[in-house]
Amino acid sequence: MSIFSYNGAAIVAMAGKECVAIGSDLRFGVQMQTITCDTPKVFKIHDKLYLGLSGLLTDAQTLHQKLMFRHNLYKLREERDMKPSTFGHMLSNALYERRFGPYFAAPVVAGLEPDGTPFLCGMDTIGAIETAKDFMITGTSPESLYGMCESMWRPDMEPDELFETVAQCLMSGFDRDALAGWGAVIHVITKDKVISRTLKTRMD
Amino acid sequence: MGSNAGGFDFDLCKRNALLENKGMTLPKAWKTGTTIAGLIYKDGVVLGADTRSTSGSTVADKNCTKIHFIAPNVYACGAGTAADLEHVTEMVSGQVALHRYATGRQTRVITAMTMFKQHLFKYQGHVSAALVLGGYDLNGPHLFTIYPHGSTDSLPFATMGSGSVNAMAMFEAYYKDDLERPEAMALVARAIRSGVMNDLGSGSNVDLCVITKDGVDYLRNYEYLQAKTYTRQFPVKYPPGTATVLKQHVLSLKGVEVIEGAEEMDVS
């Protein structure tokens, strides 16, 4: 039984034309039992930076709280929000610090750099960083998510097209996963607004 | 987090060991299966690497960078656990920069090699990093291999990683001393390609890095082998409204207008 499939999650992030979208499922369960359907796995760090965390939910929540603490201190000292690329490297270092006793959480970082270019990166549980120009996924059924994203991603999508694509990839991906699903939320970040939509999905 | 003076933090080990005793299997870290190679030619060193990073048998990154910067005249190719490689090369790169500022001299390749081997030996092979380190310093071109337990070799041509036998086959057949630059680059690219095509842990593209006394030529994606041979004739475009939305929340990010310098503060 893998620690990674104790809670279950599905997270997809994609880059479009001067926008990014990141979405996750809403199930919170303990092995085969579902407890709630209102637990998003994507957390806001600041207006233009969102962090998705899959894996053991307790570690995902602890890691999110520790990162918010570090970001708040950074904001007080620097008087500005952290750039997504900086945040990605800080997260990579924070995970590698626990190389021999890791947090069981695999992150996906999605945001817009100050000049408006999309930034996407993902990591394994010990902080090996991968920056992507197209999409990043993490969760309990990576094969189905990879399959959908590889097929459906196109370069330079507008925010509305990007939303529809992420929605279909996420929903079709987690429909093949018993441990993820039960609702989905997707955030689309553009330079002048963030639209968060909760989707109607199969509740099984 | 961020409270100790660097190094590793072992505070979650007890909890993780407890979970393992209960039968939980730990998640797999990303590895760089890899084919990395280097050779010394007439004017310097040529390093080469593939660009595939794997998580079990799934490709995690189709175009990752395995030739890491150590100093302006020293680069290292890495095979092993991806996180270990990135962090150990960044750490040695930082240490070697501080050493440059302290000594006021150009970095020597053996300095970087000694820092790597001392770190890896200290962790007894648990930091899984196998490297091909190459560079050009005041004593000429150098090429070293560094193994995860901390042993090193100094060689005229070297390969490491799961595709090392594939690449070494090319080197053993075609290597000569004092090759010219185009021949050396072609041979390293061929060796890496041999790994990419025949080893399952290596794939995607070929990166090269040529280091001479005049500088470095970092040829990212020297051979781009993963171009799709087809494109969808009718790409799938979902019309707006395909996904049913239950709730929508719009957060406007247009900044608040700040009017400054309207009136002087009254300090009487």
UniProtKB/TrEMBL annotation, chain A:
Cellular localization per UniProt: Cytoplasm; Nucleus
Keywords, sorted A to Z: Cytoplasm, Nucleus, Proteasome
Main subcellular location of this protein, as a coarse class: cytoplasm
Classification via InterPro entries: Ntn_hydrolases_N, Proteasome_beta_3, Proteasome_bsu_CS, Proteasome_sua/b, Proteasome_suB-type
Subunit (UniProt): Component of the proteasome complex.
Assigned protein family: Belongs to the peptidase T1B family.
Role played: Component of the proteasome, a multicatalytic proteinase complex which is characterized by its ability to cleave peptides with Arg, Phe, Tyr, Leu, and Glu adjacent to the leaving group at neutral or slightly basic pH. The proteasome has an ATP-dependent proteolytic activity.
Protein name (Swiss-Prot/TrEMBL): Proteasome subunit beta
Annotated organism of origin: Volvox africanus
Lineage, uppermost ranks: Eukaryota, Viridiplantae, Chlorophyta, core chlorophytes, Chlorophyceae
UniProtKB/TrEMBL annotation, chain B:
Superkingdom per UniProt: Eukaryota
The keyword Lipid metabolism appears for this protein: no
CDD domains reported for this sequence: proteasome_beta_type_7
Subcellular location: Cytoplasm; Nucleus
GO molecular function: threonine-type endopeptidase activity
Cited InterPro entries: Ntn_hydrolases_N (IPR029055), Pept_T1A_subB (IPR000243), Proteasome_bsu_CS (IPR016050), Proteasome_sua/b (IPR001353), Proteasome_suB-type (IPR023333)
Keyword flag Mitochondrion: no
Active site: 34 (nucleophile)
Alphabetically ordered keywords of this record: Cytoplasm, Hydrolase, Nucleus, Protease, Proteasome, Threonine protease
Assigned protein family: Belongs to the peptidase T1B family.
Task performed by this protein: The proteasome is a multicatalytic proteinase complex which is characterized by its ability to cleave peptides with Arg, Phe, Tyr, Leu, and Glu adjacent to the leaving group at neutral or slightly basic pH. The proteasome has an ATP-dependent proteolytic activity.
Subunit structure: Component of the proteasome complex. Component of the 20S core complex of the 26S proteasome. The 26S proteasome is composed of a core protease (CP), known as the 20S proteasome, capped at one or both ends by the 19S regulatory particle (RP/PA700). The 20S proteasome core is composed of 28 subunits that are arranged in four stacked rings, resulting in a barrel-shaped structure. The two end rings are each formed by seven alpha subunits, and the two central rings are each formed by seven beta subunits. The catalytic chamber with the active sites is on the inside of the barrel.
Name recorded for this polypeptide: Proteasome subunit beta
Species in which this protein is naturally found: Volvox africanus
Lineage of source species: Eukaryota, Viridiplantae, Chlorophyta, core chlorophytes, Chlorophyceae
